[in-house]
Amino acid sequence: MTRIGFMSDLHLDSNQFGDFEQQTLRHLLKEEGIDHLHIAGDLSNDLAKISLPFLETLKQEIPLSFNLGNHDMLGLSEQEISNYDFQVQQFGQTKLVSFSGWYDYSFVPEKSKEEHLRTKTNFWFDRRLERQLDDPSITAQILQELEKLLATLDGPIIVALHFVPHQDFLYDHPYFQRFNAFLGSQAFHQLFVKYRVKEVVFGHLHHRHQSRVIEGVRYHMRPLGYIREWELTRNFFNDFPQYKIPQMYRLHKRYNAVKDLAEFRDYKKKHLAAELRDALTVIEVQ
């Protein structure tokens, strides 16, 4: 029996992942008996200077692999991005297929391509990336490569990708629904069903969901996300209500108000392991 651990959206730079955080993660993986760790994208905004050194250090403790997320692509060429896609690893009879994925605006079909591009240019991180094709074309190309690969594989298949492959996991708040266009594509799910993919792990949208089966595919979505979004940060304000601010719905503001407090630093140290455990998916394979 092999225990494969999956995480995503560590955002090492934004979350100021230092020695204590890395030590806590290593201890957790050992405690959980993880034999192999796969990180499904968004390690940091600097693959070469932050993510790869982090992975090299962690690799001394545990075998691991990863696929890119959109933040990892910052500063990379199209060829460098493609080099990390469609890795296949075998664990007994089970194959783990990993790739980044992308989006084609199909989750928000009521808006035009021009409207989506304006929203992306004004608000979305990916405006900083230098992709060679437009978004629907990138996604179509990835889907073509994915189908070609899946058609060659037999036995149980686990897929790890960064982007969202099913509409059940989108933003539901009216303000954020326009950003669903940049989350993924339902076409990934259709391929997973067609080729009887057993399990799919993904992140990108920083919401954690209970695993669920949709048309025979079990989906796992438990990204770590930014510290301002963490459960421990929310719980801190419940346990220390004197630090609540008038605009508690502004996650960045409320986090900035407490991040340097001794009480918050101690609270984070006490609860970090539980936060990381909540963002860990474990799949056992024969």
Describe the structure.
It is a single chain. The chain has helices spanning about 20-30, 45-60, 80-85, 115-125, 135-150, 185-195, 230-240, 250-260, 260-280; strands at about 1-5, 35-40, 65, 85-90, 95-100, 155-160, 200, 210-215, 215-220, 280-285. By secondary structure, the chain is an alpha/beta fold. It has a single domain (about 1-225), classed as Metallo-dependent phosphatases (Purple Acid Phosphatase, chain A, domain 2, 4-Layer Sandwich). The chain has a six-stranded mixed sheet, covered by helices on one side. Helix 2 links the parallel strand 2 (about 35-40) and strand 3. The radius of gyration is 19 Å and the shape is globular.
